[in-house]
Design goal:
This protein is of the alpha+beta class. 41% of the residues lie in helices and 25% in strands. The strands form three sheets. Strands 1, 2, 6, 7 and 8 form a five-stranded antiparallel β-sheet that branches. Strands 11-10-9-12 form a four-stranded mixed β-sheet. A three-stranded antiparallel β-sheet has the order 3-4-5, with helices on one face. Helix 1 crosses helix 3, helix 2 crosses helix 3 and helix 4 packs antiparallel against helix 5.
């Protein structure tokens, strides 16, 4: 058996009093992460045991964190540094700007079909949430909840829960079709399968729209005003959401238009990041996340 992890996103319903508690806890958690990040940047120490020995008491006394919160802060910072080292191959100090809170299952939070219980700086609070689509995940003989992340987006609170479950391993003898996928600019994907059928997804409209975003960003960057910077941030989020939707639609179309037990083969793009840094934004590849069945 193999394990697959998906992320379930639920919206938390909080009163004004609860919002104050959540905001305070998330802000203190963020400040603690920045404090630990400064220390790690100076010492290059990524071992939780040694960090815990040096910083645990400070996190408890200076920031008023609970025991598990202090441990979670260390894990959050270590994970962020390791991600940067893996992707950038450089020792870059991460800065935690937005309030956040990483929650350990059955310690910092618990979840039932109608109640979200979370630990705050002032004790545990129980909150309702929108449970649509979550009911099947409460069969804990199949699904396991992991460390969740609590975020605040435009005054709304969301809980991102990693859900892990077992899936059957793919058997080579079951493969009935092989699809080769090439990703590009003029064509988002070009496919060719073992039945000698080819398929193309045009990237002309996508390329043009990204060029328009690039042109608009350039104009706003030249203004250098607070409102232009806010606009730049909003446009960036909008473009990311749009590209995620495009990638999802392409991936879904590939899966739905091929039979079960199809093997999707993608080109090896290791090292492509360094190459794309020398390419203009409007000519960047549209990277697709493909579901393999």
């Amino acid at each position: 058996m193999e394990q697959m992890t998906i992320t379930a996103k639920v919206q938390i319903v909080a009163t004004d009093t609860d919002k104050v508690l959540l905001d305070e806890t998330m802000s203190v958690y963020r400040d603690a992460c920045n404090y630990v990040s400064d220390y790690v940047f100076q010492t290059h120490d990524l071992k939780q045991f040694s960090l815990n020995k040096v910083l645990y008491s400070t996190l408890r006394e200076k920031f008023g964190l609970k025991s598990q919160m202090a441990q979670s802060v260390l894990k959050t910072v270590i994970a962020r540094y390791r991600t940067i080292l893996e992707n950038q191959n450089e020792w870059i100090q991460p800065t935690f700007k937005k309030p956040q809170y990483d929650l350990v299952w059955n310690r910092d939070y618990s979840l039932t079909q109608n109640c979200f219980s979370v630990n705050t700086l002032n004790g545990r609070v129980k909150l309702p949430y929108f449970a649509e689509g979550m009911s099947k995940y409460f069969d804990h003989t199949i699904y396991k909840f992991g460390t969740a992340k609590l975020t605040n987006k435009h005054g709304k609170y969301y809980l991102h829960i990693p859900v892990t479950y077992d899936v059957e391993e793919s058997n080579i003898s079951d493969i009935c079709n092989v699809v080769g996928i090439d990703r590009g600019i003029n064509f988002v994907v070009a496919t060719y399968d073992s039945n000698h059928k080819s398929g193309f997804v045009s990237g002309k409209a996508i390329k043009q729209k990204r060029a328009n975003y690039s042109k608009l960003r350039k104009k706003l960057q030249m203004r250098q005003t607070p409102s232009s910077r806010r606009r730049l941030k909003a446009i960036g989020h909008r473009e990311n959401r749009w590209m995620q939707d495009v990638n999802h639609c392409v991936s879904k179309a590939l899966v739905e238009n091929n039979p079960k037990h199809t093997l999707f083969v993608l080109e090896d793009l290791s090292g492509i990041r360094n190459a794309t840094e020398r390419v203009k934004t409007k000519d960047l590849l549209c990277f697709c996340i493909v579901v393999v069945l």
